[in-house]
Amino acid sequence: MTTFNIIEGSAMLLELISAYGRIASVEALAFLRWLAPSASSINTKGYKITGRRALRAAAVLLLASEIALGASPAIAQDREQVKVVFEHALPNVEGKRLVSVLVSYPPAAKSLPHHHAASAFIYAYVLSGAIRSQVDNDPPKVYHQGEAFYEMPGSHHTISENASETEPASLLAVFVVDARDNALTTPDKAPGSR
Prior knowledge:
The protein contains 3 helices and 13 strands; from the N terminus they run βαββααββββββββββ. It has 194 residues and is of the alpha+beta class. The protein has a 5-stranded antiparallel beta sheet. α1 (6-38) packs across α2 (51-68). The protein starts with a strand and ends in a 7-residue tail after the last strand. Mean pLDDT is 76; it is low at 1-25 and 71-76.
């Protein structure tokens, strides 16, 4: 039996998201996707919800979280999964750190258009499949397994997606970034949003 305390759990998830930005939000959503079908008991302000009501409440929490984080539930399954696999201060370059991120794309998945930290120089290596990418006003290009590309600081990444409708794809993105830059990626604002 899984019991989830909404007050404590929500505070923990919001803390993760605010501290670590988009990467943690992806992990928080993965946690909530796991929680929703397995919740058999939910506590909220001392009131315990069990059975089908717990399942529905967990599903509502997941839905609200995905919408708050900018992804509709239908679209969220079509997004990339991002995981930091290595991070270390550069001992010979004061104020800089190296961060390696594994980006996995299910078939037909894509990233939202985004900017990276203003100080970030990025080297991307395609580990599997094929990635379609467009940076700034350059034409879109498809990179296959074993190929690489880079992004200069301040670049606008307008397209980053799996080029295949049927096969997964992944890449390793290596950031050289100022140590003070916490958010590696900032999605563009939706038209009409503030």
